[in-house]
Amino acid sequence: MGYDTIIRGGTVVTASDTFAAALGIKDGRIAAIADTLDDPDAEIIDATGRLILPGGIDSHVHISQPSGDGIVMADDFESGTRSALFGGNTTIMPFCLQERDGEMRAALTAYHALAEGACYTDTAFHLIVANPDQQTLGQDLPALIADGYTSVKVFMTYDNLRLNDAELLSTFDVARRHGATMMIHCENEDAIRYLADRAEADGNLRPRAHATTRPVAVEREATHRAISLAEVVDLPIVIVHVSNGAAADEIRRARSRGLRITAETCPQYLMLTADDLEGMDWEGAKFVCSPPPRDAEEQRACWAGLTDGTFDLFSSDHCPFRYEGTDGKMNPKGAKDFRHVPNGIPGVETRMPILFSEGVGKGRIDLNRFVALTSTNHAKQYGLYPRKGTIAIGSDADLAIWDPEVRRTIRHADLHDGADYSPYEGIEVTGWPQTVLLRGKVMIRDGALEGALGDGRYLDRDARD
Ligand code: DUC
Ligand code: ZN
Ligand code: ZN
Q1: Ligand 1: nearest atom to the Cα of 157
Q2: Nearest residue (CA) to ligand 1, atom 5
Q3: By CB atoms within 10 Å of each CB, which of 140, 203, 312, 338 scores lowest?
Q4: Residue 429: which H helix or E strand, with range?
């Protein structure tokens, strides 16, 4: 058989196995996995001393998402997918946001227009339902799920996005009947509002107040409520961006009762704490995200959740805003008030190197678990497996060839997103993807971009069975 490309000399890692092998790629797919392969016409990539992993799938990123008056997300599809690619990802899953008074279909048409021809990685969209009216729940959502938009996020916080319990139940019911995966942002808006009002009365408006007005209790309560409402409806759910041990305990308890709960955590809950929001002047705004980073004990609890299987997904929750200027963290009002700081931090490029270094490198998880947490489980959860998320005959040749020994200090100047800072600045990591292939095409070779804008495609998905 003729191959387009052969990768040899490396160690292949999947979610279950680690083995030396050569890979033969034909027409964008893995066509052979063997001890040795040869083809005089094939391009040969030498992976000696390298690990060959499935391309990362980051199933929780925000790109070009409407973010309120005068606030602009720092990444569009071009910069967001470029940054993702340099971090070893070949697929990302951003959110198409329906606004409170908006229509889902109009939002989706506009979002596709932004992505069309503008991606370096493959993409598939989740939907955010913020207007669960008759048109959305009765018509648009069922039709869109049937069209392959099979994952839907809802919020329990933010005045302009949150659904009340009745709305959650009716949205869950549509997901159950039509076979969509429901992703839930669990924080209790009324409790946050109460604490924010108290902070205001105390004249406490600095970024740190963002964390103190969103304590563990508001996340734990909402996690418990989301699980209970899903139990009532009989719907499997994904709890996104879990930040602490108490919420993880709610998930463990629910699972021990047989409920189908998947949970996700993110780098910020391993690497940052609420103290980072103290920052000199207004620098703490660079770390404002929801749920907020917590403390060392909760970091340990999140590591425990990654090692004991409570968390199946490790995503970046990349949600970038610039620090300088007035369309991001400083906000158009120029108000030194934590309530006007847009929530979210960049991290799509650093997600995998951080987990590789802190997790695999420090012996907390093994390589196979790393692959599961950063790629395979995302593909399985969101209907992309086995086309994506593994190295197997017939799978897309989405591959990241890692140098497991290279040492790097994270500097925003070396990253490729549209923000102007990294919350992980100065952190030292060992291991970084050097060469990345998307459907067999070399997109990054030895750290240099070779792929073209528009090489990334939109991925159609099947409805869940
Ligand atoms: N939720 C997210 O998932 N991302 C950023 C902000 C938020 O509240
Ligand atoms: Zn969220
Ligand atoms: Zn998010």
Answers
A1: 8
A2: 344
A3: 203
A4: strand 428-438
Residue 325, Ramachandran bin (φ over 0: left; ψ between -120 and 50: alpha; else beta) = left
Residue 126 has which token pair?
Answer: 């989740």
Distance between CA 429 and CA 455 in Å, rounded? 29
Cα–Cα distances in angstroms (integers) from residue 93 to residues 96, 123, 196, 241, in the given order: 10, 6, 32, 15
By most ligand atoms within 8 Å of CB, the mutation choice from 161, 266, 290, 321 for ligand 1 is: 290
The string of DSSP codes covering 430-441 is: EEEEEEEEETTE
Q: One digit per residue, pLDDT tens: the chain, 465 residues?
A: 799 999 999 999 999 999 999 999 999 999 999 999 999 999 999 999 999 999 999 999 999 999 988 999 999 999 999 999 999 999 999 999 999 999 999 999 999 999 999 999 999 999 999 999 999 999 999 999 999 999 999 999 999 999 999 999 999 999 999 999 999 999 999 999 999 999 999 999 999 999 999 999 999 999 999 999 999 999 999 999 999 999 999 999 999 999 999 999 999 999 999 999 998 778 999 999 999 999 999 999 999 999 999 999 999 999 999 999 999 999 888 778 999 999 999 999 999 999 999 999 999 999 999 999 999 999 999 999 999 999 999 999 999 999 999 999 999 999 999 999 999 999 999 999 999 999 999 999 999 999 999 999 999 997 654
Residue nearest to atom 7 of ligand 1 (CA): 290
Phi, psi of 268 (to 5 degrees): -60, -25
Provide residues with CB under 6 Å of ligand 1: 62, 185, 240-241, 289-290, 317, 319, 343-344
